[in-house]
Each structure stands twice: as structure tokens, then as C-alpha cells.
Design goal:
By secondary structure, the protein is an alpha+beta fold. It contains 1 helix and 3 strands; from the N terminus they run E-E-E-H.
Length: 107
């Protein structure tokens, strides 16, 4: 959720491989290369949108990280429109909600 604007959007995942031949297993327990892609598409403001952003996070299993990235981009856009200094201008090295995904050792 954003404290700066109302963001509307849709989350999703995309499977990397077919799983019908496997027993049911949590995505996080799969080898890194077999984990689902997480994605989010968002736009803001809800009424009369001015920006749309799509984020895909490879092998994330869930769309949460992608949604955080979209939120941060939209908030930076809102800040810039309102004349506020945005994170990239403050020399911040990472997103406000960094995501680190480490491949399995067998990669």
C-alpha cells in the first residue's frame, strides 16, 4: 500500500515448468530455476491514471516483491510531480524495500 496515492493493479505468477508430474510442493522448496515468476502491474492514481508500471521478479514464487517495486516507482513519480526530492536524487543505493533472492547451490 502507498501512503502517497491510491494504486490499482493486479498480481500474478507464471510457472516456469509443468508440475502435473510432480507431487504437491511449496514453491520455495523447488530448485531455484523451477520457481514461479512473480509479477505485478499497477497504475495510479485510480481515477484518471497518469502512470502504469509492470514489474516481473524472476523465481520469486510470489508477486509481493514485484508489487513493492511498482509501489516504489509510482511513489517516486508522485514525489517528482509534487516537486519533492526522490530517492534516486538522494543517492540511495537501493529500493526502500530491497529484495534479495539467492539461487540454490546446485545452480
Amino acid at each position: 500500500r502507498s501512503k502517497k496515492t491510491i494504486i490499482s493493479g493486479k498480481t500474478g505468477t507464471a510457472q516456469v515448468r509443468r508440475f502435473s508430474d510432480m507431487k504437491k510442493v511449496k514453491c520455495e522448496e523447488l530448485p531455484y530455476k523451477d520457481r514461479h515468476m512473480g509479477w505485478f502491474v499497477g497504475f495510479a492514481p485510480r481515477e484518471n491514471p497518469e502512470i502504469a508500471v509492470v514489474s516481473i521478479v524472476e523465481h520469486a514464487c510470489h508477486p509481493y516483491a514485484a508489487a513493492q517495486i511498482v509501489r516504489d516507482v509510482i511513489e517516486a513519480f508522485v514525489d517528482k510531480q509534487q516537486g519533492r526530492q526522490v530517492a534516486s536524487e538522494k543517492k540511495v543505493d537501493s529500493l526502500s524495500a530491497p529484495v534479495k533472492i539467492v539461487p540454490d547451490e546446485d545452480e
